[in-house]
Amino acid sequence: MGEPADAPPGPAVRLRDRLDRHLRPPQLGQRRRDRLALRRRRGPLVGASTTDPAPGEPLRQRLIYAVSAAVCLVVAALILGPRPEGVAGTLDVSSLPWVNATINTITAGVLLAGFVAILAGRVALHRALMTTALGLSSLFLLSYVTYHWFSAGPVRYEGSLRGVYLFLLATHVVLAAAILPLALTTWTRGWFGAIQSHRRLAPLTLATWLYVTVTGVVIVVMAHR
After folding, report:
1. Cis ω on the peptide bond leading into residue 53 (within 30° of 0)?
2. 3-state DSSP call for residue 50?
3. Using an 8 Å Cβ cutoff, are 83 and 153 in contact?
4. SS3 state of residue 159
5. Tens digits of residue pLDDT in 79-132
């Protein structure tokens, strides 16, 4: 038969209770508990690794810098360099500036949605949205190069806000060159589990990326209205 209901607890039970009291974490406020739960749900973007830096990070970073420099040089050569005789005007690209503006608008929306997703702790959705934004920016780059390769010449702004236009254009071009290594670095660090450095770099990347996409739309509207 078992012990009576009112029997005093045995030594093992008393020891367990004492350890429980000493090792139990202090009571937290509900808001603090919610924040900790959200942080646990976010976790790493892939796998369970939170190694910072992630294995292979130096090699990936060198590749990112090399790819970014190569892309910038190729784009500059295609746009500013000499073109074969008769290429300009052989393809109707008059609608591409508005296509580019549309891609930039969608990209800005996807970036904001990705930001909201990570705030809500939806890591998989955040990862998918930011990867989509990277793909959209790549599509924009192809469309942008195609336009400048086949267009008859640059479009000059003829409005009264020339100083504003030139400022937006200059900052857009500089930051567009900077966003490629920034975006790739932030994305790869999140993807490969270097979460701390990913989170440190992400605000700068998001702000720069949004500025480039939004000013890209404004420049098209000002130059082609």
Report:
1. yes
2. coil
3. no
4. coil
5. 777 777 767 767 778 888 899 999 999 999 999 999 999 999 999 999 999 999
**In the block, which residue shows the tokens 């000013």?**
215
Size of the chain, expressed as the number of residues it contains:
225
Which tokens sit at 58? 């130096």
Three-class secondary structure assignment of 115-157? HHHHHCCCHHHHHHHHHHHHHHHHHHHHHHHHHHHHCCCCCCC
CA distance 219 to 198: 31
Q: State how far the alpha carbon of 35 is from the alpha carbons of 30, 32, 124, 163, in Å.
A: 9, 5, 19, 46
**Domains of the chain, start order:** 54-224 (1.20.120.80)
Cα–Cα distance for residue pair 177/168, rounded to 1 Å: 14
Query: Residue 152 and residue 140: Cα distance in Å, rounded?
Result: 20
Cα–Cα distance measured from residue 3 to residue 13, given in angstroms and rounded to the nearest whole number:
13
pLDDT band at 48 (very low <50, low <70, confident <90, very high): very low
DSSP state of 91: S
Measuring CA to CA, how many Å separate 84 from each of 88, 90, 110, 147? 8, 11, 38, 15
Q: Give the mean pLDDT of 182-209.
A: 92
Q: What pTM value is reported for the model?
A: 0.71
